Amino acid sequence: SRARDLLRKHYGLGVGVPQPSGKERDPMDLDSPAFDAKAYYEQLITTASLPTLLKRENELTSEIRQLDGKRQALVYNHHHELIAASDTIAAMKTRAESLDADLDLLRAAFSEISRLGAEV
Fold it and tell me: Which stretch is the leader sequence (predicted)?
């Protein structure tokens, strides 16, 4: 949809649905939508040595912490953007409400002008 494409463009995600590449269909690639955790685990546990497994565990733990930090930063940033937008909307509402009295005066003035014009 148009709204989804605009949001994707705003957040730098690209427009439309990207076509999956070979890497994106790889069940052994952790970043692939086709990732198969059970197959990855079986392959890793049967082919890797204990030091390699421990190293991979440390790498994955570090990556998980980094991704969690990025996720928290995104939530924090979006939360503040929502609060700022809410404050802006509240300020606009206050300003619009203060214009009501001025608009009533203007409406009365135009009515008087119309009445005077009709008399002439």
Answer: none
For residue 50, give both structure tokens: 């204990």
Give the dihedral of Cα atoms 103, 104, 106, 108; nearest 10 deg. 160
The residue extents of the domains of the chain are 50-119
CA dihedral 60, 31, 14, 69 (to 10 degrees): -20
For residue range 23-40, list pLDDT tens digits in order.
668 888 888 889 999 999
Output phi, psi for 19, to 5 deg: -80, 135
Q: 110 is written with which tokens?
A: 């135009």
Q: Are 47 and 56 in contact (CB under 8 A)?
A: no
pTM: 0.50
> Is the torsion defined by CA of 90, 95, 100, 101 positive or negative?
positive
Please give the helix or strand (H or E) that residue 97 lies within, else none.
helix 50-119
